[in-house]
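During the first year of the project, the team set up a workflow for recording each protein of interest as an amino acid sequence followed immediately by a discrete structure-token representation. This format lets reviewers and collaborators read both layers of information side by side without switching files. As required by the reporting guidelines, we include two representative entries from the current panel. The first entry is reproduced here exactly as it appears in our internal archive.
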Amino acid sequence: MSTRVAVVGGHGKTGRAVATALGARGVDVVVTGRAEWENLTAALVGCAAVYVIAPNLDVDEPGYVAHVLEAARKAEVGRVVYHSVASPHLPALPHHLDKAESEDLVRRSGLPWTILQPGPYLQNLDLTTTVRLPYDAHATFGFADLADVGAAAAVVMLESGHAGATYELASRVATVAELAAEAGVDVVVERPTGRPGSREEALLRAMFDYYDQHGLPVGTLPLRALLARGPLEE
């Protein structure tokens, strides 16, 4: 009988990457979304682990995570893995702080837990044409490849030794200017935002201002270790 695991919030690109990696390892994957929200406990019964992904820029991520944790406890799930973000404790980025608060809930849940903190996805950049970027193209980032994030999630959900661990995840450290030059495309910096005066606009402006000044560096060694890729070459 195959291991059964759940991916909560699993219908987006992150959830699909995690489910694909788990499926490649012969796991019975239960993908849940809002349709299962009111009966989440029933959906999680029999699962050895649950991967928790909140909607992007959710208005109440701690509330979302608390709901999943309560369902996981009632379903007697074996472990919980929370999809957080690199550098969650940044006062300038309110949506990062929501993830920091959610991490605290996970750590105090009473369940065996692991937290993954990926950097921005490489897949968010379309390098087949001119890149239209809302922040400084020369800012340094630790970019995460979605397939790598999915593979790392499968490792910490299915293998031992990861309870109580928090891992930042990056596949590559680079600037967008460097990535665009390698791909042979140009970069144009412009500032698309959400609806004027909206919460989304405020969060995006805060994020882009921070990126302009500091980027979001993330080390690559934790991901390489999780995926058994060996040390970086000098």
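The second entry, processed by the same pipeline in the following quarter, appears below.
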Amino acid sequence: MPEPTPPSTRPTPSRGRLLAAPAVALVLVLGAAACSGSGAGSDGSGSSQGMADSGGGSAGTAEGGSVAAPAEGAEPAAVAAVGDAQRAVVSTGTLAVRVEDLPSATTAVEALTTGAGGSVAASQVGAAGEDQQAHLTLRVPSASFEDVQAGVAELGQQTDRSTTSTDVTAEVADVDSRVASAQAVLVTFRDRLPQARTIPDVLAIEGEIATRQADLEALQARQRVLADQVSLATLDVTLTQGAPTSIVAASDPGFRGGLGAGWHALGEFLRVASLVLGAVLPFVVPVAVVAVPVLLLRRRRTRTTAPAE
């Protein structure tokens, strides 16, 4: 007959101990929550500072001193990989043209500008010495800048022309990055506002929101200015009324250059001679009125005295 198995000597936990363990854990959790809540409500400035500090990780990329400006002479990594076709360039130019009909030329310039999708930003007509002039400031799409310049130059005789191009790709990329960071930080502070439990916390967060909003609006204004300058080139046009002048270059060789220089010299000689004749002619008539009778009387006396000798 088999021997009976002896009972286990391991103590069996009682029902009281099994129920007490979860209760103790619950008390500990509630106590920790109460301590954290009292700490947030007892020191308003400290919790406000804590919110600001905890938001500093995301605020560190915002405008207002938190964003590290790129080193001078260096380009962001995103800009270094941009191709020539995607670079942001600001184009400006000046153009002076001598035209025979000023009103018609002004109308033609305006038509060229609007036809290219641009606009006339400013227009002024007046006298410059003895010449009538028209000054126009044109804003044309950058892609049509050279075509508009060539079209205006064909309206008459071009006397002056200059063009300037400035690459602002790095500045555009930097401003875009600052705007995105400022928007993200502003969203973070607005999300924290409902979590504030005291008046100092609310005032601190609202002050941060107002500051970040002002910084964001300034960056967005700069962003719009850059976008306008890049998309639209500026061309200052000066139209002067007058017949085109023929200028012979001093270094123009050959028979044609010599013939042109000779005709130019002959014209200058005739002009000077006519000027001298016009200045002397008023004195010739009175002198002739006095001198001619004297000469006739002298000749008659010589004829009468000659036989007597």
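For the second entry, the following points were noted during internal review. The longest helix spans residues 254-308. Strands lie at 89-99, 119-128, 131-141, 157-167, 232-241. Both points are flagged for discussion at the upcoming steering committee meeting.
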